[in-house]
């Protein structure tokens, strides 16, 4: 008695990304109430600078609009507002977006459409740009939620742009062309490319070369380009963040047909750490897209009180400047804390400069270099170690053994505990593997082979290109 959409399995809820969340919710870690519970490291949430926002609220008690001293009355906020949004908030938001980009780009509030989060923004753009059955190309690995956001209700398809660890998962011209040809083989009409910049899950910002490559590609194919820049304010080290709008400006394409085919998605969920406020936006130079998206936004409006409060916060330029600087400092510090702790266990990460997570190379811990081996490891980490991390396969990574590990949604003490748990697990795995290799090496000989305290480095970085199933020899390495 339900609709096809209600009963179909295309939501993506059966992904290990979501299943890990379910396991966490059954047994969540709490310092006092459940110290042996699962620590949530699959949530890309920024709690590191929440105290700055709380302090601002405390020092600005009239900002809610509910007091007699407020510039806006309760009645004004409570009554109906049209879906174009409050002008004061839109003006403050575009100024904040420019500030993040060091004012190298100026945004016009008339080109901005407010949505209930980036999820709604991406889906709305799909409805505007693609018909059911049309395809968008996405570089791998990509955010698992895109399988839901872009496809579930719109009927659009995703074709992966296969990226490799050999070049740090950077987008290449050949990968773009291969994805386009693959879509054509499947009789899919390609309508555009969607990228996240900075990348989720990689934690890296796109290079100028990649951005120019994308602009040239969509120009040659007459395609749309969606740049999801939800993590633009989280870039904490070099290279810095380059917005696609800055690229268009520098090559005088903003007011051209190519410029009209480029659309930016933004949100305050990551940069300000306010996912519960559901603040998202679409920015486009195409009037037709802005008009259609504005009409669709009526299905996911942002409350007037939320807009009013945030217009007050974002209009305080002294605060936003301090917040962005301090937030980046804290993110960098926490990022280094995670990666140093991982390195002590023999596990390395992709070199990142942004985001709320690290892209962690755990291929050295796989029992076999397959996705079955990845899932086996993931289950051990969730159930035995008590950490919910996201396996690369849930992000459509082509190479088994990569995991996204979040670090900004917990205290330093909780992160320290998480790393202690992981270190114990790695040590245990090393001992078991050494015993297994010793037995194999001994055979009929009573002489034992040397154990390898840092064997994980050897497996991860000197034998990664050997064929699966090929016998590995252990070599003594320096610390």
From TrEMBL:
EC number: 4.4.1.14
Keywords carried by this UniProt record: Ethylene biosynthesis, Fruit ripening, Lyase, Pyridoxal phosphate, S-adenosyl-L-methionine
Cofactor or coenzyme needed: pyridoxal 5'-phosphate
Enzyme class per UniProt: lyase
Keyword S-adenosyl-L-methionine: yes
GO term, biological process aspect, one: fruit ripening
InterPro entries documented for this protein: Aminotransferase_I/II_large, Ethylene_sulfur-biosynth, NHTrfase_class1_PyrdxlP-BS, PyrdxlP-dep_Trfase, PyrdxlP-dep_Trfase_major, PyrdxlP-dep_Trfase_small
Pathway assigned to this chain's UniProt record: Alkene biosynthesis; ethylene biosynthesis via S-adenosyl-L-methionine; ethylene from S-adenosyl-L-methionine: step 1/2
UniProt family annotation: Belongs to the class-I pyridoxal-phosphate-dependent aminotransferase family.
Protein name: 1-aminocyclopropane-1-carboxylate synthase
